Amino acid sequence: MGSRQAVAMLLAVFLLTPGAVRAEFPERGIEVIVTFAPGGTPDVLARTLAEGLQDNLKQSVIVVNRLGAGGAVGGGSVARAQPDGYTLLFSPALIASVVPVLQPQAGFTAASFEPVCQTFESQMALIVPAESPYKSVRDLVEIARKEPGKLTWGHAGRGSIPHLAMLELSQVAGIKVVEVPYKGDAETIPALLGGQIDFAPITLSSVPEGRVRIIGLFANARNPAIPDVPTVKEQGFDVAPTSFGGLFAPKGVPAPVKARLETACKAAVETPRYTDLARKLRLGPNLYYSGAEFAAHLATDIADKARLLATLDTK
Questions:
Q1: Is 138 left (phi over 0), alpha (psi -120 to 50) or beta?
Q2: How confident is the model at residue 209 (pLDDT cuts 50, 70, 90)?
């Protein structure tokens, strides 16, 4: 065998060896799609996480806000992206558990995504204006039972976790209250302060200090940041939905790529800047979970939301 033939054979073996010519992921910048507006809690979390990912992966990680149709536009763009790890989605779990149910025309389902890592758990609070006569959830429920249809409430949008939380509470408490939809907590809070609505379920991180009263927390246990605020469950109503979420990749992302992203995600969540932000936003205690754990949480949430959406009027 001549030297040229030997070199050719060695080259062929090298090229046929799995991963031999693959450069280590990532080779270029990564794009993270956020389906919420700039400045909101999901956006701020995503940008802080992106900084940690960038430090770990040694490539640029750019956050892109892609709004529309309650998350369907941004979610759909990631579901249709190449599953190579360079296009990711940062979103609450409702992108998998709620959006496909309420918007089947979106063109994706929970199966369209690969959970990479869970990075936050956000609790919901039930609030009234500071001068409101309602001091507790029981006060509010008592009036609503006596005078059905008198009280009005606002929420962050159809199918949002605050929306579903109050719908579930209405069912459990057996009350009829008038629903007023808004576009996010940023619209709901001024409506409450302006007297247009009587109460509102909103994300705890959005509660304006000193201007409202939190009469109940949708959680299984009190939040250490507000230890004097009782949960809705403590007040006799077994309703405790939370909004959790994190990083998703399109279905079909290679296992080694997912593993690299998961490792980087864990490191990013454990940075002081991310944990400090989580504390400032009064997030729930559970921040990071692995892709497998995140997937298990999603499966439970999908089943829970399916039951809720089937029994409650979300139209």
A1: alpha
A2: confident
- The alpha carbon of residue 99 and the mean position of all alpha carbons in its chain are separated, in whole angstroms, by 12
Tokens matching residue 137: 């959830």
Give the Cα-Cα-Cα angle 112, 113, 119 (nearest 5 degrees): 160
The full set of domain ranges for the chain reads 26-121+243-311, 123-218
CATH 3.60.40.10 fits 123-218, yes or no: no
Q: Do domains 26-121+243-311 and 123-218 have the same CATH topology?
A: yes
Answer yes or no: are the C-beta atoms of 287 and 120 closer than 8 Å: yes
Mean pLDDT of 146-170: 93
Non-local CB neighbours of 19 within 8 Å, separated by 6+ positions = 256
pLDDT tens, 214-251?
999 999 999 998 999 999 999 999 999 889 999 999 99
* Assigned CATH for 26-121+243-311: 3.40.190.150
CA 42, CA 246: separation in Å to the nearest integer? 9
Q: How confident is the model at residue 183 (pLDDT cuts 50, 70, 90)?
A: confident
Handedness of CA 278, 241, 156, 66 (dihedral sign): positive
